[in-house]
Amino acid sequence: MVAMKKRKKPVNNVWDATPWLRPDDDDHPREECGVFGIFGHSESAAHTALGLHALQHRGQEAAGIVSFDGSQFYSHRAMGLVGDNFNSADVIERLKGFSAIGHTRYSTTGETLLRNVQPLFAEYNFGGLAIAHNGNLTNAYTLRNELKARGCLFQSTSDTETIIQLIAVSKAGSVEARIIDALRQVDGAYSVVALTNNMLIGARDPAGVRPLVLGRIGDAYILASESCALDILGATFERDVKPGELIIVTDGGMQSMFPFTEVPSRFCIFEYVYFARPDSDAEGFNVYNVRKDIGRELAKEMPVEADIVVPVPDSGVPAALGYAQESGIPFELGIVRNHYVGRTFIEPTDQVRHLGVKLKHNANDNMMRDKNVVLVDDSIVRGTTSKKIVNMVREAGAKKVHMRIASPPTTHSCFYGVDTPSREQLLASKHSVEEMAKIIGVDSLAFVSVDGLYRAVGQASRNDEIPQFCDACFTGDYPLPLTDQQSGMSSNQKDLFSGYSEV
Question: Is 152 a catalytic residue?
Fold first, then answer.
């Protein structure tokens, strides 16, 4: 047997799909997390696992499920994909009970360790409580120091545990009152599902930055990050959980309340651009249709003479379709994506590492040779992948390459649960569009305007006094306090491209 050389892995072990690739080989912001909860179903664990499968795009580092059978909580948490960890009948059968919550994780705070994998669980004087969270608490570091000073012992580095500790020290009476008390103390964006001995609780931050939906299957209620998690079960989509709403599900039914201070709604507009699955409905709009409408707006605002419109798959496909339909330029799959680029047995060398982009994408030469090509992608972060793809298209024989981006320039980092680079690493934060075009190597580069993006989601334009969405990554207008940042404390927010060893 030939001895295999041990590969160097990223320090945080988050590049699960291609762990030996350098981070700049994937230039998209990383999705946040996905949450799922169900109450009152005999196959709650199996349904939760299926729901997490549908939410896998929101986090691929780790997955976990906690269930309750009326007397005991059961838990299974593991690093890796849902299908790798919840693919056996034995695992599901051990997760007994008529209620369960689950989580798919991509961390924006906290190390990538099993102790940080959600749902987190704690025993209180009122019984057990499991909790899973999508988002980012922007005062978690401040609260953590205060809680430590009060004697609280933390078992993880996840900001979700801050909520657990706030519940523990709360003087409120009922379980739901203690959860409300805890959430009133946190800043930032969150969608939370929690499971106790006798209830399922869901909560959404007052600005509604992160998504959460309510569904039903038979008599069982479901809470999930996206409606696609309901579709996989054949469940009925009831509605979006409203910003600032707290949902309580018990054997007696579902109760809704609004215990938090009302603020203007600021749903994350990047959910429409990239994060949400295209077959999901979010805040009254179908994500796929919005992405096509963004492409139409882009074609109106930034037309160009060309022979074909080519998407950068897969996230650029709907916008490219819209661009092609509006412009009348034929749509072609000039780039083919390999969907099977998982863990490889090949140990990369310096000589082949530069070919990494072709693991995911390959040019369809016959389609692009001697053509003027419009490349459509959803966003540009650092520009590293864009540059490689443009070079690949030119090598395929394209005469001219024009790039059109279905979002405005990304100029600011996100602190609300999306892992983005530091602002210094964002290409658009320090370069003009013309400079970016030269760096990427295109004949022209253009982005949809902020108003064009708003028109695609049913608004005439952005209301600068009271914006309808969170668009901080494009405008720098942060709608929620950045307490840890502004106080000068060292935030746990991770830099997307920091903490990795060279390979």
Answer: no
